[in-house]
Amino acid sequence: MDRAGLSRVIAVINVKGGVGKTTVAANLGGLLAASGYRVLLVDLDPQGNLGEELGYSGTEVDDGGRALALSMTTGAPLSPVPDVRPGLDVVTGGPELDPAAAHLVLAAQADPQAAKRSLIGLLGETAPDYDVVLLDCPPGQEPLQQAALAAARWALIPVKTDASSRKGLRDVARRLDTVLDLNPDLDLLGVLLFGVNRGAHRVIESARAAVAEDLGDDAPVLRTTIRHVEAAAQEARDRGLLVHELEEAVMAAPAWWQIRRGTPAGDGPRSRSVLGLAEDFQALGSEVIERIGAAEQAEESAGAGDGRAAGVDRGAAAVDLSAREEQGGDRQRRTRPDVLQGA
Ligand SMILES: Nc1ncnc2c1ncn2[C@@H]1O[C@H](COP(=O)(O)OP(=O)(O)OP(=O)(O)O)[C@@H](O)[C@H]1O
Ligand SMILES: [Mg+2]
Hints:
This protein is α/β, with parallel strands linked by helices. It has a single domain, classed as P-loop containing nucleotide triphosphate hydrolases (Rossmann fold, 3-Layer(aba) Sandwich). It has 15 helices and 8 strands. The chain has helices at 21-34, 50-54, 66-74, 97-110, 112-116, 120-126, 142-151, 165-177, 201-215, 230-239, 243-252, 256-260, 274-303, 309-319, 321-326; strands spanning 9-12, 39-43, 81-85, 88-91, 132-136, 154-159, 187-196, 221-227. It has an 8-stranded mixed β-sheet with strand order 3-4-2-5-1-6-7-8, sandwiched between helices. A hairpin with a 2-residue loop joins strand 3 (81-85) and strand 4. Helix 3 (66-74) packs parallel to helix 4, helix 6 (120-126) packs across helix 7 and helix 13 runs antiparallel to helix 14 (309-319). The longest helix has 30 residues, at 274-303. The radius of gyration is 20 Å and the shape is globular. Bound molecules: adenosine-5'-triphosphate and magnesium ion. The site of adenosine-5'-triphosphate has 21 residues, from helix 1, strand 8 and helix 10.
């Protein structure tokens, strides 16, 4: 099976709900797109929360997942909504995915391997049009999760640091195991500690130890952690803005002293805590690109000339953002010129 076109497919996954999967998929995808990468986000969740995160929920592009469900049941090519943000296309999810997921459950009873393979062909056709593809996985829906993992090159696992998240981690480890026969390329991009209280060093250290115990000593825990700032996260979702977009809006809003001097406050964004959160996502973007770039370079030097070289070459060219910008590439940086300069 030629998986070269899938070499940049990242499943954002955890068996546990509410651990930041959608927030991470949306913000990582949005930041990479703002930095000039062509990004596809696929909402595999019948909850359709990605639409709230990106602000298209209830608009005319929100089909509740109908097109994706149709693709999954008939094999019709995916039809992403173009330019939800510049450079960011989205395959929308939502409740229409429920019947497709039920169909997958039945298919898995008849032929488990075929059900697991159900996204490989669809993404294999579409992923080569993009530099990065992020799959926002539902918390339950085992067959959908398995289909995502079978098509992905990478798994990115957001986890919270509370005790109950431990069990989720063991479950997700088992789920990764269930597709390895079909997808030996699947690798752990990293475990991302999400919603971490600043300064909680001991909590972070014990979470790292828990990851090593449940996923193995060599399981990578990302350097980056995403801080807990409920007000900013809530405001971003309520306004349908990504964190870096909310940050820009907050920076542009009048400061308290301007308001005192007579500038109307309006109902503009006000969660200044978003500034630190935006830094965390920026660091996440850099670390993800760094890790994928390092893996691709290692594969390239190890396997020059083998079947995966084409995908690796395409990837390596896209990783070096600064070099491409200097060459005046046709893709311009968009809203935040400095987004991934650390990469
Ligand atoms: N940095 C943050 N600090 C605190 N809360 C956050 C932060 N980022 C997001 N949240 C909130 O955490 C909740 C869960 O986030 P999210 O929807 O991304 O998780 P999920 O894993 O996708 O959930 P589900 O399993 O239901 O799909 C949301 O209400 C979101 O607003
Ligand atoms: Mg979600």
